[in-house]
Amino acid sequence: MNMTNREYNEYIKGMAPKSPLAGDLIKAFVVGGLICCLGEALGILYRDAAQLAQEDAAAAVSMTLVGLSALLTGLNVYDKLARAAGAGTLVPITGFANAVVSPALEFKTEGFILGTAAKMFTIAGPVLAFGLAASVIYGLILCLLQ
Fold it and tell me: Of 9, 13, 27, 143, which alpha carbon lies 20 to 30 A from 71's?
């Protein structure tokens, strides 16, 4: 089959399944919003019922969301939710916890050191490295400017 690049691109475009963009956007918005609403509800609960200070309540909300995300990932619920909801589950803190736990579970058969510990940050490692490097650079710039 002899095709030009343009003909090939048109052929591929015709064969690819159509993505329901509007539906995907709505699902992502709703699920991401629900995760954020859960965080707000937990914050109110920790501040009012547990009488925590604002800063302590925020830390407790973060820990709760990370713990729930890790637990749901371990129970294979988070992945099913992500398949159904798409990008809505990538709300930073829950998506990050999922990105750390998923490879750890996937490679646990290779042992604790070479499997779980070595592969745990396969996805999240570059994010951490870039974030740490950026914070050092920003801190140095701030020190130099003051």
Answer: 27
